[in-house]
């Protein structure tokens, strides 16, 4: 699926497209500047409990995992319990603290931006594809009827 | 039958790990599945030798002196593996080319060619570390028959130095768990008591080293997954500094925290393995281009130490790690370990890390958030198992539903929640701010101390099934280790004593935390601690009758 767009509606504030692009070995977040103010506004929430509870069916849809109704029933209290526990961080005074994307030891040591040849095992990669018809990876139709 | 095994105190008379086990390697021995644990302890004790405990150095000596061949050495490990594996289930896959690779080393030696420093060393590799010629499932159904087209950089380096990959070790699915019960394939047992968990997620790698099924193993540590199983299984576990070892070919769980780590039955073995896999790799931009010291120079024999070999070393005992919630037995063993360090010349001082308890929720927010993104690559399209569907979104959803286990699904959903628009500041960003606070508090503590010490886990190994259905109880067991990942620091866990439990007692690990890229100090201190520690050796009852080191 590569990068994904998480779209949620409902709850205390109206949600907008908020794209998190996580690629390769470390994460980077892109916040669309237009919505920055809206998103910031919810960090004033002082306790985890005032955020709406997780809608597990909806989260599963977003994460592209087809849950059975039984799984939804089984997971909901467990996920709720953990998210309530996450909520304890709301009470910590962190106003002036810079977030650390990772335990940055050295900074990135990126190579020069010039093309290089890397070993590539095309055959091995293709043989791992569940459904392949030269030269394409075959998938079912992308658009649903509605 | 395990209850008939000797107490650990009596084990110290066995030393040499690498005598070929003639009785065990007989070709007429019937299938390992019919062998009982009692058969394993009926072997005659091998001759006692010096207490030098490095299997890697011992293998090298044996090969270079032509005392033993690589084939003989490999056969002795393989026969032990076949005998113990039915009781342990450490491996998801065992290589069928071990003896052929050993023969190649013997051929080279017979031509008097140079062989690499890991020649003849059997290395277990955690199943989330890619190997081109073996399956690599990450403990997940979704990668059921997956064979990667490449070796992870760490594996490649081990092979280049002559190491023989003996197989792929069991783990919690994608590293998400602390018991190895979360594997989609099998439950691994603790060699000290087969009714207990080996810890996790690198439980297979720790159990395999503990039972001497291989000499050393590679694991991965996102929140303690090398160190906690090392503690539970009575072996040495080394989590390197973030950036010390290339992550290329390690299946990403939480990329800002993941590191490949080393497990061995001695500090020297873990350190030699670290030396082999460390250093910059152009395939991982987060790998550091700092030079790698020769860790092996510190692994000298105990008679070179002198009276107070650690004179002047400042050791900080982290106060928050000895609070309530930690088993009294564990606390007492760690205090004894601190006294031992004091006898070696260290000054021990309690230090406080006030943000310590915040590390756990911050860690789980960051790890589940990053995993929800990283695991989006498992969609059944380019590799892994696919569930046929009429429409693409159903193909994704159904492939992921049938491929992932419950814990992985829940963590992806929690991460999806934490990253949702509107909640990002409340969870993910706050957790990143906590990471900054934790890094600073470690920095301050390590400015005043050379190393910090704590237990490796709040308890010794618990029973299989005990915490399986209570996620928060399982997460709480990671309290000792997650902060170190958040700060990116190196840490060494080594066995330091026993608590009651199981047939002969259960091992407890001491965690030593160092400054970034100062693995050298941890290995030096760890080696001296290990070589001077009195008491029973850390060889589990399952193999105590025929092997020890």
Tell me the helix content of chain A: 10-25%
Number of helices of chain A: 4
How much beta of chain B, percentage-wise? Answer: 5-15%
Kindly name the structural category of chain B.
Answer: alpha/beta
Largest interface: A-B, 85 and 96 residues
- Identify the strand order in the major beta sheet of chain B: 1-3-2-4-6-5-10-11-9-7-8
How do the helices and strands follow one another from N- to C-terminus of chain B? HHHEHEHEHEHEEHEHEHHHHEHHEEHH
- Structural class per helix/strand content of chain A? alpha+beta
- Main beta-sheet strand count, sense and barrel state of chain B: 11 strands, mixed
Helix content range of chain B: 25-40%
Q: Based on CA inertia axes, which overall geometry of chain A fits?
A: flat
| Largest beta-sheet details of chain A | 3 strands, antiparallel
Low-confidence residue ranges of chain B: 1-52
- Oligomer class: heterodimer
| Radius of gyration computed on alpha carbons of chain A | 21 Å
How many strands appear in the DSSP assignment of chain A? 5
Structure description:
- By secondary structure, chain A is of the alpha+beta class.
- Chain A contains four helices and five strands.
- In chain A, strands 1-2-3 form a three-stranded antiparallel beta sheet, with no helix packed on it. In chain A, strands 4-5 form a two-stranded antiparallel ribbon.
- Chain B has 549 residues and is an alpha/beta fold.
- Helices cover 35% and strands 11% of the residues of chain B.
- Chain B has an eleven-stranded mixed beta sheet, with helices on both faces.
- Chain B: Belongs to the amidase family. GatA subfamily.
- Chain B: Keywords: ATP-binding, Chloroplast, Ligase, Mitochondrion, Nucleotide-binding, Plastid, Protein biosynthesis.
């Amino acid at each position: 699926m590569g990068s994904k767009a998480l779209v949620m509606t409902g709850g205390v504030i109206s949600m907008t497209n908020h794209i998190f692009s996580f690629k390769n070995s470390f994460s980077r977040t892109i916040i669309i500047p237009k919505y920055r103010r809206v998103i910031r506004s919810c960090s004033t929430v002082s306790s985890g409990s005032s955020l709406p509870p997780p809608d597990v069916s909806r989260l599963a849809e977003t994460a592209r995992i087809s849950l059975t109704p039984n799984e939804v029933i089984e997971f909901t209290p467990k996920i709720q319990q953990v998210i309530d526990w996450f909520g304890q961080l709301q009470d910590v005074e962190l106003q002036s603290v810079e977030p650390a994307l990772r335990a940055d030891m050295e900074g990135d040591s990126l190579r020069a931006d010039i093309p290089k040849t890397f070993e590539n095992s095309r055959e091995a990669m293709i043989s791992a594809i569940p459904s392949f018809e030269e030269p394409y990876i075959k998938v079912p139709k992308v658009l649903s009827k509605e | 039958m395990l209850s008939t095994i000797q107490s650990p105190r009596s084990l110290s008379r066995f030393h040499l790990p690498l005598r070929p086990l003639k009785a065990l390697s007989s070709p007429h021995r019937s299938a390992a599945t019919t062998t009982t644990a009692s058969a394993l302890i009926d072997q005659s004790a091998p001759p006692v030798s010096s207490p030098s405990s490095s299997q890697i150095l011992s293998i090298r000596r044996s090969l270079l002196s032509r005392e033993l061949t690589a084939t003989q050495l490999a056969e002795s490990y393989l026969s032990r593996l076949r005998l113990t594996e039915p009781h342990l289930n450490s491996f998801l896959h065992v290589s069928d080319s071990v003896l052929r690779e050993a023969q190649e080393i013997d051929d080279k030696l017979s031509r008097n060619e140079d062989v690499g420093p890991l020649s003849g060393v059997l290395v277990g590799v955690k199943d989330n570390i890619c190997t081109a010629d073996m399956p690599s499932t990450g403990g997940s159904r979704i990668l059921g028959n997956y064979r990667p087209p490449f070796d992870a950089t760490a594996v490649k380096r081990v092979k280049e130095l002559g190491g023989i990959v003996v197989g792929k070790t069991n783990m919690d699915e994608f590293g998400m768990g602390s018991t190895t019960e979360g594997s989609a394939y099998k439950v691994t047992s603790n060699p000290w008591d087969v009714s207990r968990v080996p810890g996790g997620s690198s439980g297979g790698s720790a159990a395999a080293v503990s039972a001497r099924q291989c000499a050393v193993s590679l694991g991965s540590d996102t929140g303690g997954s090398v160190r906690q199983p090392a503690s539970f299984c009575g072996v040495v576990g080394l989590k390197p500094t973030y950036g010390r070892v290339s992550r290329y070919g390690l299946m990403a769980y939480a990329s800002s925290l993941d590191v490949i780590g080393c497990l061995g039955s001695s500090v020297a073995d873990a350190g030699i393995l670290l030396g082999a896999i460390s250093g910059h790799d152009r395939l991982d931009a987060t790998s550091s281009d700092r030079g790698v010291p020769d860790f092996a120079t510190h692994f000298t024999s105990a008679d070179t130490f002198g009276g107070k070999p650690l004179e002047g070393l400042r050791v900080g005992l982290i106060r928050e790690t000895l609070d309530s919630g930690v088993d009294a037995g564990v606390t007492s063993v760690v205090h004894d370990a601190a006294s031992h360090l004091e006898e070696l010349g260290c000054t021990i001082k309690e230090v406080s890390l006030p943000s310590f308890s915040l590390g756990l929720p911050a860690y789980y927010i960051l790890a589940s958030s990053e995993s929800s993104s990283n695991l989006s690559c498992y969609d059944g399209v380019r590799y892994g198992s696919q569930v046929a569907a009429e429409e693409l979104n159903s193909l994704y959803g159904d492939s992921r539903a049938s491929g992932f286990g419950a814990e992985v699904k829940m963590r992806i959903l929690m991460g999806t929640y934490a990253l949702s628009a509107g909640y990002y500041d409340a969870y993910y960003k706050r957790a990143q701010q906590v990471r900054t606070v934790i890094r600073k508090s470690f920095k301050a503590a390590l400015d005043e101390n050379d190393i910090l010490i704590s237990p490796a886990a709040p308890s010794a190994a618990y029973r299989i099934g005990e915490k399986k259905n209570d996620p928060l109880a399982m997460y709480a067991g990671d309290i000792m280790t997650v902060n170190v990942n958040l700060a990116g620091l190196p840490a060494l866990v080594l066995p330091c004593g026993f608590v009651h439990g199981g047939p002969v007692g259960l091992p407890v690990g001491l965690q030593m935390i160092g400054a970034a890229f100062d693995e050298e100090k941890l290995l030096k201190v760890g080696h001296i601690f290990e070589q001077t520690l009195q008491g029973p050796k850390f060889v589990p009852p399952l193999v105590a009758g025929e092997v020890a080191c």
